[in-house]
Amino acid sequence: MRQSLPAATRANALALAGLLAEALTAWEEVVADADLADLPRSNGCLYLYRRESDFAKAAGAGRCAPGLASIKRF
Question: What is the pTM of this model?
Fold first, then answer.
């Protein structure tokens, strides 16, 4: 629970950013080496919510992508 406090969340995000700083470049190299450069897409993002009410709360607070209007259930 402490890791979800604002200061810990910021510290964790910075730590992950450091770990992932070179990830995109590394994946691009793997994809190029496999001659699959036409497959990956570099636009958009994915938002996942456990409950519809969580989605509604995020959408109401403006934390969803513009134009996002529905939930895809899996």
Answer: 0.42
* Nearest residue to 40 (alpha-carbon basis) of 54, 30, 50: 30
* Ramachandran bin of 50, using left for φ above 0, alpha for ψ from -120 to 50, beta for the remaining angles: alpha
Q: Give per-residue pLDDT as tens, 31-63.
A: 999 999 888 877 777 777 888 888 888 877 666
Q: Are 39 and 31 in contact (CB under 8 A)?
A: yes
Maximum Cα–Cα distance for the chain, whole Å?
Answer: 44
Look at residues 73, 48, 51, 42 and name the one whose alpha carbon lies nearest to residue 63: 48
Share of the chain above pLDDT 90, in %: 23
The set of long-range contacts for 11-15, using a CB threshold of 8 Å and a minimum separation of 24, is: none
Rounded Cα gap, residues 13 and 5, in angstroms: 12
* DSSP at 37: T
